[in-house]
């Protein structure tokens, strides 16, 4: 099959949908399919081929609510020879242009629906207009809608009308990259958090984690490592200084793949305290940590929360509940045996459900049925 993907951006940009497009593309290439990507040229890169995936990068004129506006996208898609299109939300520009192209070329469109489009201030107004005017047409055009969180079919007011098209597709993790490795340990318990530190990703809940560390540091000599960068880095550093956490928090900035794996293995616990069920999707970083045999603490809004709890791979806490989060941290950090059991359970859960091979099995089956 000739498959064209249209994520808003692509590797070396690191983000949720970009990771899905990369690893799904690599797995489909390994199965003998021809996979191409058209995306915005961010960051500036000239590599026309990434792991067998052909990449066309387009200039963009603006960036609205984390979505690059690429005027040439429609014409570039129409030039391509493909059997099907696969696009992604919550990036409406590339998704809706892809829907138009699929109708013009009479090719099936597949949509990975990571989460509802929302926002605050002017972005909330823009999101509301989009959801009323354009989203229904996109969902109607899509042959199948892949969701990464089982709860979306009930919680999203937009998906219910199209439930017959919806396919649950949990994300995968690259087990060749994310795996247990030997690292030098320190005595102080270490906690790891990883996210983009910008306004768009404020829903990841770092402020609540910092507050939980403040509550806990008098009991445990805890060390929090914060990976990621963005325009809110100064805000978080000021928060740390204001609350006397300078010795308890290290901001690591951008992490390479190798550094990311190292800090997953270096920590005693990984935490993803997201606060928005609308904006948070799957919680892939938590799965990456489990692949490194680390216990995780997540909030109930994370797509993997139910299985983390049922498999005893970590602790699920209430979002925005600082005391609940601090108690969960203390429970794991003071009991190494408990943490070890959770880490092993999480690793088995990843092997059972969260590999890209399993995800590609589901998608490939849907692709083949569409082509037939």
Explain what this protein looks like in three dimensions.
By secondary structure, the protein is an alpha/beta fold. It has two domains: 2-171 and 355-371, Glycogen Phosphorylase B (Rossmann fold), CATH 3.40.50.2000; 190-353, Rossmann fold (3-Layer(aba) Sandwich). 40% of the residues lie in helices and 19% in strands. It contains 14 helices and 16 strands. The strands form three sheets. An eight-stranded mixed sheet has the order 3-4-2-1-7-8-9-10, with helices on both faces. α2 packs parallel to α3 (92-105) and α7 (206-216) crosses α12. The longest helix is centred in the last third of the chain and has 18 residues, at 336-353. The protein is globular and about 65 Å long. The model has no long low-confidence stretch (mean pLDDT 92).
């Amino acid at each position: 099959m000739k498959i064209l993907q249209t994520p808003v951006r692509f590797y070396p940009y690191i983000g949720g949908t970009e990771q899905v497009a990369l690893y799904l593309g690599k797995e489909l290439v390994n199965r003998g399919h021809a996979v191409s990507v058209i995306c915005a040229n961010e960051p500036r890169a000239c590599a026309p081929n990434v792991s067998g995936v052909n990449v066309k990068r387009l200039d963009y004129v603006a960036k609205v609510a984390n979505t690059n506006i690429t005027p040439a996208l429609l014409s570039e898609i129409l030039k391509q020879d493909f059997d099907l299109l696969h696009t992604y939300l919550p990036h409406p520009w590339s998704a809706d242009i892809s829907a138009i192209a699929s109708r013009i070329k009479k090719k099936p469109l597949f949509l990975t629906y990571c989460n509802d489009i929302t926002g605050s201030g002017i972005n909330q107004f823009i999101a509301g207009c989009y959801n009323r005017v354009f989203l229904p047409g996109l969902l109607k055009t899509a042959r199948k809608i892949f969701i990464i969180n089982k709860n979306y079919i009930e919680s999203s007011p937009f998906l219910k009308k199209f439930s017959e098209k919806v396919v649950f597709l949990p994300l995968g993790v690259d087990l060749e990259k994310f795996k247990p490795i030997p690292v030098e340990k320190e005595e102080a318990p270490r906690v790891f958090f990883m996210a983009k530190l910008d306004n768009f990703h404020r829903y990841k809940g770092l402020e609540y984690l910092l507050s939980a560390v403040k509550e806990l540091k008098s009991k445990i000599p805890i060390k929090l490592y914060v990976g990621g960068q963005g325009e809110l880095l100064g805000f978080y550093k000021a928060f740390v200084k204001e609350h006397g956490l300078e010795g308890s928090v290290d901001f690591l900035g951008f992490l390479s793949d190798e550094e990311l794996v190292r800090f997953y293995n270096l920590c005693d616990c990984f935490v993803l305290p997201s606060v928005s069920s609308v904006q948070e999707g799957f919680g892939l970083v938590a799965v990456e940590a489990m692949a490194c045999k680390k216990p995780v603490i997540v909030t109930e809004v994370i797509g993997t929360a139910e299985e983390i709890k049922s498999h005893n791979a970590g602790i699920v806490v209430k979002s925005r509940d600082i005391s609940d989060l601090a108690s969960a941290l203390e429970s794991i950090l003071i009991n190494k045996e408990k943490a070890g059991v959770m880490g092993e359970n999480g690793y088995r859960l990843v092997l059972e459900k969260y590999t890209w091979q399993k995800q590609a099995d589901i998608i490939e089956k849907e692709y083949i049925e569409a082509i037939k």
